[in-house]
Amino acid sequence: MKLLGATFSIRSLQYVFVISSLCAILAVILRPLVYTSKEDNIYTTYLPPKKELTKAGTHRENATLVVLCRNDDLEDVLSSMQSLEDRFNKRYHYPWLFLNEVPFTNAFKNATGRMTDSKIEFVTLAPEEWELPTSIDLTQLAHTLRVMTENQVIYGGSLSYRLMCRFNSGFFFRVPKLLQYDYYWRVEPGIKFHCDLDYDPFTFMREHDKMYGFVIAIREFPNTIPTLWHHTHEFFRKNPELLARDNSLPFIEDYGMGLDGMYNLCHFWSNFEIANLNFFRSDAYMKYFNYLDSQKGFFYERWGDAPVHSLAAALMLNKSQLHYFEDMGYFHPPWSHCPLDEESHTSGRCLCNRDRSFANNPYSCFEQWHRNMQI
Ligand SMILES: Nc1nc2c(ncn2[C@@H]2O[C@H](COP(=O)(O)OP(=O)(O)OP(=O)(O)O)[C@@H](O)[C@H]2O)c(=O)[nH]1
Ligand SMILES: *[C@@H]1O[C@H](CO)[C@@H](O)[C@H](O)[C@H]1NC(C)=O
Ligand SMILES: *[C@@H]1O[C@H](CO)[C@@H](O)[C@H](O)[C@H]1NC(C)=O
Ligand SMILES: *[C@@H]1O[C@H](CO)[C@@H](O)[C@H](O)[C@H]1NC(C)=O
Ligand SMILES: [Mg+2]
């Protein structure tokens, strides 16, 4: 009995083993049929409703993305590219144009080329587009760099930063490779876009006759531009016809005194810019730039391209030609702009903290911007 019983149970165990193996195999084979609908339900329950992004049409605007940078900015350039490609350009395929006063290395070209399916080009700037003008006195320049370093002026001791600001103020838009475009989007290393962009901002600019678009408005450090306002005032006194009729003086002057008042230091943060290059190429802007350049404040002070672009846009364009890209989530260290409306967040379009958006910061110039647009 014992022996028989043991034999019997071994045999039955074999059956159990064979049958359960068959079941396991069947379960694997049949699993998709049995479980698919249930799993779909699980996932649709947990996924937020996601807005379908518009597929870009075949039409592309006459526009390019532009990055001025150095070879050793590579890592931060790649993260900027990844962000803009993911949020916008992988669907629109605007070309990338890289500018540098020295040739880009093969390593730089290879790595950036891998980040995009779009056309990508690399430009080495001509010496006259970048180098120190011969009119600048080296002794006076050295003196300025030393004094500004002592006074802890931001980038006050840097010559290369000054060359960059002068280039961005008066030269980028006439780099030969850029002449073939109407619009540009300035991209810097180490920036990030917080939101999907489901329309083409270049098309928006063209259809609404916009010349200059920004995301963040902020105050300049006064010790970088001691006489910029004085020279600007002087320029418009000599060329009153260049002051736009519907200008944005209320954005840059707080007491309704116009050019006779004081500059409140408000400017568009030019590390982000979507603009019509023909504005910068215009006789009016060129005349303003050449006048400022002749005053040598790019070197004997430390004029930034942001206040120069902004004063020109505020004074030589009509308000309707400026655009605040309020719906664009954007980060350039240390500040972010995060769209404040509910829908940008409930739709899953944006991932950023509204409370920390720069518009809520006391140093922002959004109050001045809104005042300007309401007048
Ligand atoms: N090729 C080149 N690009 C430069 C040079 N200096 C600055 N840039 C670029 O010019 C732009 C502005 O320079 P940044 O150093 O970002 O200046 P910023 O935005 O005022 O200040 P931070 O971002 O806070 O450093 C960036 O796109 C830089 O990559 C330079 O000497 N050569
Ligand atoms: C860049 O890519 C080219 C072509 O694929 C290759 O021959 C070259 O070795 C690469 N150079 C570097 C520095 O990565
Ligand atoms: C693009 O813009 C440039 C600069 O204004 C112009 O010369 C060129 O003809 C334009 N190209 C097209 C296709 O419209
Ligand atoms: C501003 O608008 C006026 C009409 O109100 C127009 O005559 C002028 O040309 C415009 N200025 C610019 C820069 O477009
Ligand atoms: Mg920067």
Automatic annotation (TrEMBL):
List the Gene Ontology MF annotations in alphabetical order: alpha-1,2-mannosyltransferase activity
Location in the cell reads:
Endoplasmic reticulum
Keywords of this entry: Endoplasmic reticulum, Glycosyltransferase, Membrane, Transferase, Transmembrane, Transmembrane helix
Transmembrane ranges? 12-34
Q: Which residues form the active site?
A: E273
Q: Which GO terms describe its biological process?
A: cell wall mannoprotein biosynthetic process; protein N-linked glycosylation; protein O-linked glycosylation
Q: Which InterPro entries does the UniProt record give?
A: Glyco_trans_15, Nucleotide-diphossugar_trans
* Cellular component per GO, a single term: Golgi apparatus
The record's comment on protein family reads:
Belongs to the glycosyltransferase 15 family.
This chain belongs to the protein called Alpha-1,2-mannosyltransferase
Tell me which species this is from. Answer: Schizosaccharomyces japonicus (strain yFS275 / FY16936)
